[in-house]
Amino acid sequence: MELLLYRLCCSNLFYVLLVIIICRLSDCYDPLDPNGNITVSFDILQYTSDGYVARVTIQNFYLYRHVDKPGWRIGWTWSQNEVIWSMSGAFATHQGNCSSFKFQTPHSCKKFPDILDWMPDALPQNRSDACCKGGILDAWAIDPSKSFSSFEMTVGNLGGNSTGYRPLNLTLLAPGPGYTCSPIIDTDPAVSSVIGGRREEQVYRTWKSTCTFSSYLANKTPVCCVSLSTFYNAAITACPNCSCGCREADQSRTLCTSQGMSPSDLVSDTDILQCTDHMCPLRVHWHIKNNFLDHWRVKLTISNYNLGRNYSNWNVLVQHPGFSQNSTSYSFNSIVLPTIGVPDEVALFWGIEYYNDELLQADKVQVGSVTTEILLRKDMDSFTLRNGWAFPRRIYFNGENCEMPLPDTFPMLPNGGSRIDPPHWSLLPIMVYLTYKISGFRF
């Protein structure tokens, strides 16, 4: 038994199990989006003399995490000696060794095919339904019609009586690492409506895998931070120092990198940023602008400090109890998301198409930014400017949790009212002392 435990601890399996346990107990589960995932489905549409024709669909069920450029990339391992005879709507990046096929050359003979989406300008012969989006998938809450992509492939080299074998070891890059996919399993065959919904058609078989994201597995540093300000206090609570990394000792430098390197020593995947104390590519600023009789107004600004990257189809998620009341966003699209077991409401904001849906990169002089004002109705039973109530509980940018300042650094009311009031019982010694003092009693 001891020998077995020793071999387990020294094996890669132990490391994999440890990663899975840590992932499940921490950040693979998002309480603001508990059902979020990317589901990959294989639907067998018809059988052929040596295999089958399958439609593969990548569906993004994350409410606010989208798949950005350069898009999704999926792969798997064939169970047998399958080859891909042809594809439409996507392509395999490598053909592999197809020298054993003399009369017809397959599209891919790789045991581990690597699949990419076509760009929107793909030729008609390379297209299929719901394809060719450059691998970009919108978040489900923003636009469900753009949250999925599919392609078709003809799989063969299986023999005449085969009904197909499930692929193994599905991998998903969307676009980078961080996704873990479950084993591909048999499920109920998919059913679709035709003839205007008057007839239902069912595929022969359906296989599915569910992929979830973990920032732990992605090994990412934070990408954003939050700063705060108010109309009643001139002080600004800046992003915490070193939120996303620390700047170099040379404080006169105006250009920094996300990895603390000199810009002259850059590698291709290193971001160039404006030098700041927080060193984040993005900053979200929450400014309490006005306090009216039955409403209050906030200005929300997202700033891009990255000199080499625009953020297309960005979104910002804000958790705040004030969104339990009606609110109006003047320059962003917005929606309040359903939450289960979360104490505060969650609002999702994103840009208006062709107006501010792209957060432009910074230059050496100024940062790129988008902004809106938000008017919120007051809940007279809960609204207050004391104790930091009017500031967000949590903010996400493109699904990434932003670093928040500590509560004791929040802007205070002029009379110090934003400090946490002490419990009433803590005043008891002072009251006893004053009582004895007034009565003339000496200690």
Low-pLDDT stretches are: 1-26, 259-268, 417-443
Distinct helical segment count: 4
Largest sheet: 7 strands, antiparallel
Overall pLDDT, averaged? 85
- Report strand %: 25-35%
- What kind of assembly state do the chains in view correspond to? single chain
Instruction: Determine the N-to-C terminus distance.
Output: 70 Å
Cα-atom Rg, whole angstroms? 28 Å
Q: How does the overall form come out from the CA principal axes?
A: elongated
**Helix amount:** under 10%
The secondary structure category is mainly beta
Question: Count the strands?
Answer: 27
Concise description?
With 443 residues, the protein is mostly beta strands. It contains four helices and 27 strands.
Write up what this structure looks like.
The chain is mostly beta strands. The chain has helices at 2-9, 12-25, 215-218, 428-439, and strands spanning 38-47, 52-60, 73-77, 83-88, 90-92, 114-117, 148-156, 168-173, 179-181, 185-187, 191-194, 199-202, 205-213, 224-230, 255-257, 272-274, 282-291, 295-304, 311-312, 315-319, 327-329, 333-337, 346-350, 358-359, 368-377, 394-397, 400-401. Strands 1, 2, 4, 7, 9, 10 and 13 form a seven-stranded antiparallel β-sheet that branches.
What attributes characterize this protein structure?
7-stranded antiparallel β-sheet; glycoprotein; elongated; signal; 5-stranded mixed β-sheet; lipoprotein; 443 residues; 4 helices; COBRA-like protein; COBRA_pln; 27 strands; mainly beta
SSE diagram, text form:
Blueprint: H1 2-9, H2 12-25, E1 38-47, E2 52-60, E3 73-77, E4 83-88, E5 90-92, E6 114-117, E7 148-156, E8 168-173, E9 179-181, E10 185-187, E11 191-194, E12 199-202, E13 205-213, H3 215-218, E14 224-230, E15 255-257, E16 272-274, E17 282-291, E18 295-304, E19 311-312, E20 315-319, E21 327-329, E22 333-337, E23 346-350, E24 358-359, E25 368-377, E26 394-397, E27 400-401, H4 428-439
Parallel strand pairs: 14-17
Antiparallel strand pairs: 1-2, 1-13, 2-7, 3-6, 3-8, 4-7, 5-6, 9-13, 10-13, 11-12, 15-16, 17-18, 18-25, 19-24, 20-23, 20-26, 21-25, 22-23, 26-27
